[in-house]
Write the structure tokens for this entry.
Amino acid sequence: QVQLVQSEGGTVPAGAWLRVSCAASGGTIRDYGVGWFRRVPGLDREFIAGVNWSGSSAYYVDSVKDRFYISRDNALDTVWLQMYSLTSADTAVYYCAADPSGHYSESPDAYTFWGQGTQVTVLS
């Protein structure tokens, strides 16, 4: 059974950057698309970015476009979400998830495996 293990987050000032990793254990996600979601207390989980299995295609929602970047190294079975120019609106728990289709989807239902979540807090 694949497990996705995410790195710890942190508390940073506005304008700072942070990188969150998502590593597979117990199996491989090399053929999986990976999506990143975030959840703010009281709101639904929000899809913010995705990358296909090869890394050749990535998508970002408008609120994070040109600030957040996904990268992956299939040899390491790891995906990263690099976040720049953070604002208080980015404060959330971030989740990675693996989609067996090899692509990414805005729907959480498309994903089979989920990371444990990483708290990111941005101080205004």
User: Anything to note?
Assistant: The chain has a mean pLDDT of 97. The first strand starts at residue 3 and ends at 6. Residues 21 and 80 are 4 Å apart (CA to CA).
